[in-house]
Structure formats: structure tokens, C-alpha cells
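Supplementary Methods. Inverse-folding protocol.

Structures were first reduced to a C-alpha cell string of length 328. This string, shown here, constituted the complete conditioning input.
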């Protein structure tokens, strides 16, 4: 094969490469399905879940901010969790929806880096915030006499700032480190600009980048998870020695929603990222990506509103105020 023929083949197979450069400057998302009807069905389903997630999380955040009775550490963290969920879904789902109904499924190198930064920012921040919420429940149940002083407004504010700060730092560092590499193709990404699939497109030795991703995962994903496990281990030990069955039931009920959210978040992430490579398939990977980006975010408001009387009451008040303003 002559050099000209080789370049023509490369141009055909990877038309998004920049001219006179062997480094990818644009990426393309793999089509969800070749059947148009399936794409529109998926578009409708994802759009519904996306809007439900945005509406549910926005209502919970609004209900907490506008109801003084919910101005406590637990609900302060919950409001921030709702904001993170909104950002988490908005960083990926709009582009996913566009790819389902448009033939223009490309994304620039800069656009891909931006998506990766925000997805990493919100994902890592949520890991840290879930750990802060577990610590809050530990202090409330295991040290109730000191709870008000140890979980003051300033302490809660610092915990949230640290969560967002860690997410921002990791997002900036990983995005800058990965996009300092050259990309030789193939040009296609399965679902969105996540760390592992983009790193797999890089040319040359990526061992240092893989090590950096591994270290970040250990420090910012596994460590918060271990803190959550330790907190609930202490909570369980404290609940078991409570003399009153009513006290045990009340203590466990305050933790059940958070535990369910943690299980969904870490469970879906573990299935997605820790499965053996031999079990990966493009269709399954797309469905898992859809689940842990939009389904879990949609379920979180439902979990907290169904299992928490105070949140349900606040939501009714908030919706009631909206109805009154609408009819004026």
C-alpha cells in the first residue's frame, strides 16, 4: 500500500482528524442504534428521566432553602447533594440527547475536555459529600450531646467547600494531564468523555496517566467509601445497644435514605468501572452509563421525599406557595 493510499484510508476511517496532524482534534460518539425508531424511543425516555431528575432535585433544594425548619446540617448537605446531581446530569445528558437525534455526533477536543472536567468535578464532589453526610449521621447518633457544637454551620460549610474543592482540583488535574497527550484514534467514544475511554485513545505510553487515575480513585472514591462504611459501622454498634426499640427505629430511619443513595451511587459505579474487561460490550456499557448518570440522579429525590416526612411536608408547602402565586 502506498503512502497516499494509507492516508486516504486513515482519512476515511477517521475523518475527524485534523489535516496534516496525526493527533485527533475532534471525537465522535458511537451511535446508540442504527434503527431510527429505537433512537427516538431512547431520546424520549432519557429526556423524561432528565427532566424528572432536574425537577426533583431542584424542588428538594428549593424546599430546603425556603423552609427554616430544614436549616439543619443533614438537610444542608442534602440541598448541596441535589445541586451536585443537577450538575452531574447536565454535564453529559444534553450532549447524549443531541447524539440520539442528530447526525452531527462530533465533539471538539476542547468540548470533550470541558465535559470530562465537569463530569469529574461533580462525581468526585459527590463522593466526598456522601462521606460528609455519613459523618453527620454518625455525630447525630453516636454523639448527640456534642452534635450542635461539632456540626455547626461553619463546620458544615467547610465540609461542603472541601467536597467541591477536591472535585474541582481532581477534575482540573486529571483533565489537564490526559489532554496534554496526543490522540491517534480510533476517534469514536461509546457514550461521553469519561477518563478511561479517552485515555484509551491516547498515543504512546499512558502508564503514568493510568497511575494518576488509580491514585485519584483510591484517594477520592475509595477513601470516602471507607469512611462511610466506618461511620455506619459505629452507628450500627450504637443502635444495637439502645434500650428503646423506638429509639433504634428512629435512628435507623434517619440513615436509610442516605444508605440507599450510597448503594445506588457506588453500586452502579462499581459495576461500570470494576467489571472484567472480558465482560464489556458496547450495548451494556451504554446502558450502564445511562443508569449511573441519569437514573440514580432521578431516584435520589424520590428516595428522600418518600422516606422523609419533613421533606414531604416542605415539598407540599413549596408547591402550595407556587400554586398560590400562579393563581394570583
Amino acid at each position: 500500500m502506498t503512502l497516499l493510499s494509507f492516508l486516504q484510508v486513515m482519512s476515511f476511517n477517521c475523518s475527524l482528524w485534523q489535516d496534516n496532524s496525526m493527533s485527533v482534534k475532534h471525537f465522535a460518539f458511537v451511535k446508540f442504534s442504527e434503527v431510527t425508531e429505537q433512537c427516538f424511543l431512547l431520546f424520549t425516555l432519557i429526556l423524561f428521566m432528565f427532566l424528572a431528575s432536574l425537577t426533583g432535585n431542584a424542588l428538594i433544594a428549593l424546599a430546603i432553602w425556603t423552609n427554616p425548619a430544614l436549616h439543619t446540617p443533614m438537610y444542608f448537605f442534602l440541598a448541596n447533594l441535589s445541586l451536585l446531581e443537577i450538575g452531574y446530569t447536565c454535564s453529559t445528558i444534553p450532549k447524549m440527547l443531541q447524539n440520539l437525534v442528530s447526525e452531527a455526533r462530533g465533539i471538539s477536543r476542547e468540548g470533550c475536555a470541558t465535559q470530562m472536567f465537569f463530569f469529574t468535578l461533580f462525581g468526585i464532589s459527590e463522593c466526598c459529600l456522601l462521606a460528609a453526610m455519613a459523618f453527620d449521621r454518625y455525630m447525630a447518633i453516636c454523639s448527640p450531646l456534642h452534635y450542635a457544637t461539632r456540626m455547626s454551620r461553619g463546620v458544615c460549610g467547610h465540609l461542603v467547600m472541601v467536597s467541591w474543592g477536591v472535585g474541582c482540583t481532581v477534575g482540573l488535574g486529571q483533565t489537564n494531564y490526559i489532554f496534554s497527550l496526543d490522540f491517534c484514534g480510533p476517534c469514536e467514544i461509546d457514550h461521553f468523555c469519561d477518563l478511561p475511554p479517552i485515555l484509551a485513545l491516547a498515543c504512546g505510553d499512558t502508564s503514568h496517566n493510568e497511575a494518576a487515575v488509580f491514585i485519584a480513585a483510591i484517594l477520592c472514591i475509595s477513601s470516602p467509601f471507607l469512611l462511610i462504611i466506618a461511620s455506619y459501622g459505629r452507628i450500627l454498634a450504637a443502635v444495637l445497644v439502645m434500650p428503646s426499640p423506638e429509639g433504634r427505629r428512629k435512628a435507623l430511619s434517619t440513615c436509610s435514605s442516605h444508605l440507599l443513595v450510597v448503594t445506588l451511587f457506588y453500586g452502579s459505579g462499581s459495576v461500570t468501572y470494576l467489571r472484567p474487561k472480558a465482560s464489556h460490550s458496547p450495548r451494556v456499557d451504554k446502558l450502564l452509563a445511562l443508569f449511573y448518570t441519569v437514573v440514580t440522579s432521578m431516584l435520589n429525590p424520590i428516595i428522600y421525599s418518600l422516606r422523609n416526612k419533613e421533606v414531604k411536608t416542605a415539598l407540599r408547602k413549596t408547591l402550595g406557595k407556587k400554586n398560590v402565586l400562579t393563581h394570583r
